Amino acid sequence: MRSKDRISYFYDGDVGNVYYGIKHPMKPHRICMTHHLVLAYDLHNKMEVYRPHKAHPTELAQFHSEDYVEFLHRVTPDNQEEFMAEMAKFKLGDDCPVFDNMFEFCQIYAGGTIDAAHRLNNKACDIAINWAGGLHHAKKWEASGFCYINDLVLGILELLKYHARVLYIDIDVHHGDGVEEAFYRTDRVMTVSFHKYGDNFFPTTGDVKKTGEREGKYYAVNVPLRDGIDDNSFTGLFKTIILKVVEFYQPGVIVLQCGADSLAGDKLGCFNLSIDGHAECVRFVKDFNLPLLITGGGGYKKANVARCWAVETGVLVDTDLPKQIPDNDYIEHYGPAYSLKIPRGYIQNRNSRQYLSSIKTEVMENLRHIQHAPSVQMQEVPPDFYIPDLEEKEDNPDVRINRRKRDRYIQRDDEYYEGDP
């Protein structure tokens, strides 16, 4: 056991000022609400608080295609009519609209996750938190599911520079498809996603039988769940699977995406989890005492999201929060009870004991196929990230080397690049 965890917390108030649109369910303002609860409970005094840097376009292109990053940089609500072909190509539209300061928003939340990875790599902290991050649906060349830049993939790529094996865990109600897809063919990253599956629920991926390809075969773990799962069923399955995953895989670092749309009553979710049940997963992962990167994710009832992530910040700093919410700038959002508790879920639990047992059995059988703690050859550690004033030219050797290092670990188009450049 570590005597006292050193915790880095990343927050930029500008991330909560953007607006997807009047009828859009994604409200980045929930990040501001979370932060003000953190302040109201004095949790900031138990952490090192940082304002993240804004990720440079060349950093974002460590995973995303350069033409996609350039498009996000250029398009605005005022000029989007000029980019209709690109809008269709890169899947921007109703779910992923163009809005004011969209690219800066991406730079801030991605910068927070990249900075968190850097501090973990340099052993400057034991736990790093970026509630603004966790946008797990974005693909290499397209937006998806309210996500434009996949900060999680970028953070994991940074962690791979210092860690032979990275474990990614996702408890969002939606499948973590963008992260799984990026690392589907490598054993350097194991992805484990607990999510609703079936009934054409977005993004319609995440079958238990989808386990990875080539070197990554059996290193993608999917736990497909049905409507209405409750705390006991979810946490019991979570603990059993994650304990075995950590035992088999022996990761050097864990990335945990804490999407709060798996809470009861979420506008887009269909689970019955309480905040205590959700937070129990965070507590369980923390107790492995491995370097830990925590992000947010989905969550579409703002007050509940803020409650949840504040409680989980408390878990990470070993502090139980009083249920009565203290006065803060957004206190009116928590009435009339002004409590951290949320109403229980009433969706019928369609996860029978037999169904959950069958899923657990299949996951455990898949894990038996993997090599215990796969090894990796020694290699030069690449730079942390591109230097912002570096010229972005194909003939620049630093850019070329960085791209080749990156391509060892991610699925790229229809090919998987590996080995020395």
From TrEMBL:
<feature type="binding site">
    <location>
        <position position="174"/>
    </location>
    <ligand>
        <name>a divalent metal cation</name>
    </ligand>
</feature>
<keyword id="KW-0539">Nucleus</keyword>
<dbReference type="Pfam" id="PF00850">
    <property type="entry name" value="Hist_deacetyl"/>
</dbReference>
<dbReference type="InterPro" id="IPR023801">
    <property type="entry name" value="His_deacetylse_dom"/>
</dbReference>
<feature type="region of interest" description="Disordered">
    <location>
        <begin position="388"/>
        <end position="421"/>
    </location>
</feature>
<dbReference type="InterPro" id="IPR023696">
    <property type="entry name" value="Ureohydrolase_dom_sf"/>
</dbReference>
<dbReference type="GO" id="GO:0005634">
    <property type="term" value="C:nucleus"/>
</dbReference>
<keyword id="KW-0678">Repressor</keyword>
<dbReference type="InterPro" id="IPR003084">
    <property type="entry name" value="HDAC_I/II"/>
</dbReference>
<protein>
    <recommendedName>
        <fullName>Histone deacetylase</fullName>
        <ecNumber>3.5.1.98</ecNumber>
    </recommendedName>
</protein>
<dbReference type="GO" id="GO:0141221">
    <property type="term" value="F:histone deacetylase activity, hydrolytic mechanism"/>
</dbReference>
<keyword id="KW-0378">Hydrolase</keyword>
<keyword id="KW-0479">Metal-binding</keyword>
<dbReference type="GO" id="GO:0046872">
    <property type="term" value="F:metal ion binding"/>
</dbReference>
<keyword id="KW-0805">Transcription regulation</keyword>
<feature type="binding site">
    <location>
        <position position="172"/>
    </location>
    <ligand>
        <name>a divalent metal cation</name>
    </ligand>
</feature>
<dbReference type="InterPro" id="IPR037138">
    <property type="entry name" value="His_deacetylse_dom_sf"/>
</dbReference>
<feature type="active site" description="Proton acceptor">
    <location>
        <position position="137"/>
    </location>
</feature>
<keyword id="KW-0804">Transcription</keyword>
<feature type="binding site">
    <location>
        <position position="300"/>
    </location>
    <ligand>
        <name>substrate</name>
    </ligand>
</feature>
<dbReference type="GO" id="GO:0040029">
    <property type="term" value="P:epigenetic regulation of gene expression"/>
</dbReference>
<feature type="domain" description="Histone deacetylase">
    <location>
        <begin position="24"/>
        <end position="314"/>
    </location>
</feature>
<feature type="binding site">
    <location>
        <position position="95"/>
    </location>
    <ligand>
        <name>substrate</name>
    </ligand>
</feature>
<dbReference type="InterPro" id="IPR000286">
    <property type="entry name" value="HDACs"/>
</dbReference>
<comment type="similarity">
    <text>Belongs to the histone deacetylase family. HD Type 1 subfamily.</text>
</comment>
<keyword id="KW-0156">Chromatin regulator</keyword>
<feature type="binding site">
    <location>
        <position position="261"/>
    </location>
    <ligand>
        <name>a divalent metal cation</name>
    </ligand>
</feature>
<feature type="binding site">
    <location>
        <position position="145"/>
    </location>
    <ligand>
        <name>substrate</name>
    </ligand>
</feature>
